[in-house]
Amino acid sequence: MFKRFALACAAALFAVLSIAQAEESDRYGAQKVVYHINQDGGQESKYYKGALRNIQNQINAVGRDKIEVKVVMHGNGINFLKAAKTDQTLQSEVTSLKTQNVTFLVCNNTLQSRKIDYEADLFEVFEDEIVPSGVAEVSYLQQQGYTYMKP
Fold this sequence. Notes:
Elements: H1 2-25, E1 31-37, H2 46-62, E2 67-73, H3 79-83, H4 88-98, E3 102-107, H5 108-113, H6 118-121, E4 130-131, H7 134-143, E5 147-149
Parallel strand pairs: 1-2, 1-5, 2-3, 3-4
Helix pairs in contact: 2-4
């Protein structure tokens, strides 16, 4: 009788732990996030590398199949993809994030006002990743349900 009781208790504990573990992995649910980058990266692009770590950490916590990330760059934030032209670490991280449902969007107003050729001057920017206005895009994405993040 005691053996059956002990086995029943062990089975119940196992079930409770399994449920708790499942709830923990589903803690965050699906997310849509916009990261806003509009400042210079500083020495050795420290700010940009920190922002990329934040994005990767969030993907790791939520799960790559449950998150959609947009990174909007304008103003001095454009320097992020300028720096990535020659920085192997930035290139590697951007490429990795792109495979994890992260889209990098570039402000056309900034490109025009600073006379930047996105094909020649920026790392892997394509025409469909250029938005008319970076600040308007951030607002638009928030209206679409994206959570605003400023790393």
